[in-house]
Amino acid sequence: MSVNTTSQKLSSDVLVIGGGIQGASTAYHLAQRGVSVTVLEKDTVSRHASGVNAGGVRLLGRNIAEVELSKAAMQRWQQLDDELDADTGFRRRSLINIAADENDLDSLRSREQQMHSLGYFHEVMLDKRELLERLPHVADHCVGGVVSEQDGYAIPFHSTQAFRIAAERLGACFCEGELVEQIRKVGDSWLVDTKTQQYQAEHLVNCAGAWGDLISVMIGDNVPMSYSAPMLMITARMPHFAGPVVGAVSRPLSFKQFENGTVLIGGGAKGFADRANNTTRLDYSLMANGARNAIEFFPIMKTACINRMWSGLEAYMPDNLPVLGKSMRAEKAYHAFAFSAHGFQLGPVIGEVMADLITQGETRFDLEPLRVNRYERKTL
Amino acid sequence: MFRSVTKQQDPMTAVQVTINDTLVSVVPGTTVWAAMALAGETATRVSPVNQQVRSAYCAMGVCFECMVEINGMPNRQACLTEVVDGMQINRQVITEATIAELQTELKVEPQPQDVTGNLSELTATGSSLAADVTENIKTGE
Amino acid sequence: MTEFFTPGSSDSSAEESSSISYDIAIIGAGPAGMSAAITASRASVSVVVLDDKPRSGGQIYRNVDASPLPDAEVLGPDYIKGAELTTRFRRCNAHHIRGVTVWHVGDNGEILFSDNGTTKRLTARQIIVATGAMERPFPIPGWHLPGVMSAGSAQVMLKSDGLVRDEAIFAGTGPLLYLIVAQYLRLGGKVKALIDTTPKQNYLHSMTELSGAMRAPGMLIKGVGLLNEIRKSGTKIVSFAEDLKILGEEQAEGLSYTRGGKEYSLPASHIFLHQGVIPNLNMTQALGLEHDWCKQQLCWKPKLNRWGQSSKSHIAVAGDSGGIIGADSAAAMGRIVALNQLVNLGVISALEGESEAADDLTFVASQQRFRRFIDRLYRPLDQQRIPESPGTVVCRCEERTVADLKKGFELGGREPNQLKSQTRCGMGPCQGRMCGHTVSELLANWRNQPVADVGYYRLRSPMRLVTLAELSQFTDVTPKAKKTEEVN
Ligand SMILES: Cc1cc2nc3c(=O)[nH]c(=O)nc-3n(C[C@H](O)[C@H](O)[C@H](O)COP(=O)(O)OP(=O)(O)OC[C@H]3O[C@@H](n4cnc5c(N)ncnc54)[C@H](O)[C@@H]3O)c2cc1C
Ligand SMILES: Cc1cc2nc3c(=O)[nH]c(=O)nc-3n(C[C@H](O)[C@H](O)[C@H](O)COP(=O)(O)OP(=O)(O)OC[C@H]3O[C@@H](n4cnc5c(N)ncnc54)[C@H](O)[C@@H]3O)c2cc1C
Ligand code: FES
What we know:
The complex is a heterotrimer of chains A (380), B (141) and C (488).
Chain A: H1 6-10, E1 11-17, H2 21-32, E2 37-41, H3 49-52, E3 56-57, H4 64-84, E4 91-92, E5 95-99, H5 102-117, E6 124-127, H6 128-134, E7 144-148, E8 152-153, H7 156-169, E9 173-176, E10 182-186, E11 189-193, E12 198-206, H8 212-219, E13 226-235, E14 245-248, E15 254-257, E16 263-265, E17 270-274, E18 279-281, H9 284-297, E19 305-311, E20 314-316, E21 323-326, E22 333-337, H10 347-360, H11 376-379
Parallel strand pairs in A: 1-2, 1-12, 2-9, 5-14, 12-22
Antiparallel strand pairs in A: 3-8, 4-8, 5-7, 6-7, 10-11, 11-12, 13-16, 13-17, 13-19, 13-20, 14-15, 15-16, 17-18, 21-22
Helix pairs in contact in A: 2-7, 2-10, 4-10
Chain B: E1 2-4, E2 15-19, E3 22-26, H1 32-38, E4 43-46, E5 53-55, E6 67-70, E7 73-77, E8 88-90, H2 113-124, H3 129-138
Parallel strand pairs in B: 2-8
Antiparallel strand pairs in B: 2-3, 4-5, 6-7, 6-8
Chain C: H1 14-18, E1 22-27, H2 31-40, E2 47-51, H3 77-80, H4 82-91, E3 95-98, E4 101-105, E5 110-115, E6 118-129, E7 133-135, E8 148-150, H5 151-161, E9 163-165, E10 168-173, H6 175-186, E11 191-196, H7 200-207, H8 218-232, E12 236-238, E13 242-247, E14 254-259, E15 262-267, E16 271-275, E17 277-279, H9 282-286, E18 291-294, E19 299-302, E20 315-317, H10 327-344, H11 350-377, H12 382-385, E21 393-395, E22 400-401, H13 402-410, H14 416-423, H15 436-447, H16 451-454, E23 466-467, H17 468-471, E24 474-476
Parallel strand pairs in C: 1-2, 1-6, 2-3, 6-20, 6-24, 8-16, 10-11, 10-16, 11-12
Antiparallel strand pairs in C: 4-5, 5-6, 7-17, 13-14, 14-15, 18-19, 21-22
Helix pairs in contact in C: 2-4, 2-10, 5-6, 6-8, 7-11, 10-11
Residues 56-59, 61-66, 77, 79 of chain B line the site of FE2/S2 (inorganic) cluster (FES).
């Protein structure tokens, strides 16, 4: 493969803004098809959500609008290491959402009905005995749950880097420290300015994560996106007590125990986001709630010691679904952002969708519910 | 061996602690690490990564080499903790292969035969619980 | 006057704004923290001091009020004189919360600490970080083995628990190393050998730092005096040693070194290593303060003005945590920083602050020349800071070696945080304390760039392991709280 020259970088078929997993996966899929692609990243690749997330590879409990995408992504994860010739750290472990009471079981039953009617059978309910069999350390009061067998986890930083390195092998360019400040369409070309360079391309992809709305506006699409800072904590190594990834039906609980014994605890609590300065601040009293929940569901967690806590910047849409698809206002511009805290799992398929849209003009997935202007009429 | 050069202590004030199952008597105010060093029990933990024995390095709280199990709680820094009468101090042996013991009070009412069998197997066998469960998944259980 | 931080601004939680703030919170009760507290405690000012030791004193004056030794005088006059400071500290008005570990300090004034299995929280308008120094890690082959400890640990064990280890080797460089060996000998401890790695040329280079104004720096005389004392005792001293290696596979069995190109080895079951001290960075880094690489001291330190004020105006750093200055300067800086914060709080005028601090400011400035000399003389060898041997452990928690890091570097870990994500180096419970400086210097070497461009780990709370159980219980501490912790 030829070494990337400066002219190749500055002028390519496709410019991707954002070096997270979506940008890296998009670059990989395009490069695979022989399309020249340059990724502009203002910091370093996987510096943000894609490098610091909880690594959950989850199909369980997906919004119906995302199920097809998530299923396709899940298939890809099972062989991703071979495909990318890298170690993403993916482990298939199953994911169980625990029901704490009868109400939880009721909501699981109605979800099951809905899924079955749509022809989806990957979510399987567990009774108390089955739950205990899979999670012997679960607290006594838990009454059952639901499992998705293909689910698991991967190591976020390694996964994103794996896409990046595979893309680079195929000729894609990644430019770090390049903050996109201005975007213009001149004739058939997108002209993109950073502080010191001007980049030019026929197609433009917005994979700017928590900054996606800013890029979107530069392209011409307005979105009611918000951003926040979901928080995580990880323990020192513990004796192995949970093989599956664990969540709860109606409680902010989510954790996984890695092979090395450390336990990553999430649960959706959010800290304070300051995206202009690339920083976040943690809300410790909310962390305390998470700690209480973990102990309540798994008494063994009393002996857990928190080693690190952190949060990352993530973009959300009001319906917690991503913006995915073509720009409504401009030709040859595409969006893939606002994954609302569950975009990591979708990474492998998002690049494929973007590459399909760019090279074929269409995709096999129904992106109607995810279109960028889906809120336009409603808000007026 | 470590040796004490302290002033004479009143034996009546001594506190008793258990270090790796041996009862020892120490001066109040002693750190757990010093009690261990005096008792010749200098191995604080086993490295989780390569299973080699490790011991305290800095004695002032920065290196985390002295993590021991105190009264059942792991990851206690021996050099920062003072002894308390009746304290149970144990070498910390949490490696990447350690399986958690099932706390009996957590078990629910009598289970059908196959489940109890399965449970004891999970805790008794040396293989990791995680691996067992993945195995179950693979075999379609 | 500097701007105040107001708790409860924009996005802080409701709970936060409802609690009552201290005017000044001081973290660390060493010479810097204690002096700051004495100076700051005035009638109208609420001051809280948090320290993780059961007794105040910090590193140098550790246990000076309650020495377990039959005769603490053997530790030397520099130690004994600390009793005067701890006494004044005890008598001052500050609320001293002892035996608690601070694991989070936010630039919003929030301080979280572990107290007997629960999490407590307080807020303060101004913060003084006085968390002191730690010994510079000594990454040589085998330094991770049982039987190898830092020489500072020998002193800590002596001061806190009256423990000695006979027939140990002491190796490395620096005045503290000689002091500890001398203290050992005075207590009847048997020292196998002192292996001194101070290179010959350091003696020459350091002389150039001596300006005409100061012919005989006190510290030099002290160091020479200590070495003489050790020599007179008949203890074996090897000078100009290089290429230190710990012998043994699972346990230290001795030390090998070269001298004048010849290799020697000395059997011993215990080895104490030391090559100076560096700021304990975790709190200042986690606070997001700006830091610089100090070429003179070969360490990172927070950017401070002469009043000890950091890049965040309501946070000051005093004592060795802001750069190594020694106990007397640490105490002076404590007073200077406290006066500045009193000015910030509007308790005294800038003019009053300036005049009250004048002597201390002059003293601290004058000490800097001595520092340059000491730093040059005892500058640790490159080979003892930037390990080359592939098998040398850099990250003790995760057992990552030079070879592991080199591999991670080649896979794209070009900066400390990327290298950490790539290799887990620095991810363990010590939060990079033991590997951070080594990683910065290794990467600088591999990239062939200045250390300043490489940077340090981005750190986050908790600064120590916190149990999930203690995190789950939160209580607030306010200035109104009775001084129950104060037991004399
Ligand atoms: C704490 C946390 C836990 C999570 N847990 C999970 C989980 O368990 N499972 C899951 O599936 N998902 C999870 N997520 C969500 C997931 O991480 C994200 O949805 C996903 O990583 C989004 O990828 P991205 O590439 O869109 O965004 P990012 O990784 O944020 O990448 C966007 C990049 O664009 C760059 N950029 C922005 N503006 C510009 C500009 N103007 N010029 C140049 N570059 C720019 C940014 O610097 C950034 O690097 C979690 C998220 C967080 C924060
Ligand atoms: C092991 C060791 C031994 C030393 N011995 C000597 C000596 O004998 N003679 C000499 O001249 N110099 C000695 N020094 C150098 C010493 O650092 C300075 O002389 C002097 O003690 C610096 O004072 P300070 O107030 O800046 O910090 P320190 O005296 O170190 O005080 C800092 C205090 O903060 C506490 N602390 C730190 N982090 C936290 C936290 N997160 N929560 C709560 N409390 C915290 C510490 O426990 C300590 O009590 C020694 C240094 C070390 C590391
Ligand atoms: S010995 Fe270093 S932390 Fe206890």
